[in-house]
Amino acid sequence: xxxxxxxxxxxxxxxxxxxxxxxxxxxxxxxxxxxxxxxxxxxxxxxxxxxxxxxxxxxxxxxxxxxxxxxxxxxxxxxxxxxxxxxxxxxxxxxxxxxxxxxxxxxxx
Length: 109
Hints:
CATH architecture: Orthogonal Bundle
Shape: globular
Structural class: alpha+beta
CATH class: Mainly Alpha
Strand order of the largest sheet: 1-3-2
CATH superfamily: Winged helix-like DNA-binding domain superfamily/Winged helix DNA-binding domain
CATH topology: Arc Repressor Mutant, subunit A
Order of helices and strands: HEHHEEH
Distance between the termini: 44 Å
Number of strands: 3
Number of domains: 1
Helix content: 40-55%
């Protein structure tokens, strides 16, 4: 089983976890666009979600059919126990490395 996450996959997985049980493509896209201040293609979100689901890091379910969506259903995502484990490991690694940065003084920018 592959437990590696790319940076973008990690951001998507973090967002799914943060939006617990209410995460779907558009909500993830809006959140990440706002938080990163970058233009993100919605297709990239969907590709990342498919990869995360294939790896077992997220599960999905369909919501009900709505008129506002032209009879289509939203596909909701939720982080799995394995996904949470991978996020925790990533957080621990990044925190461990960050804590090794010596106290440095930089000129104010």
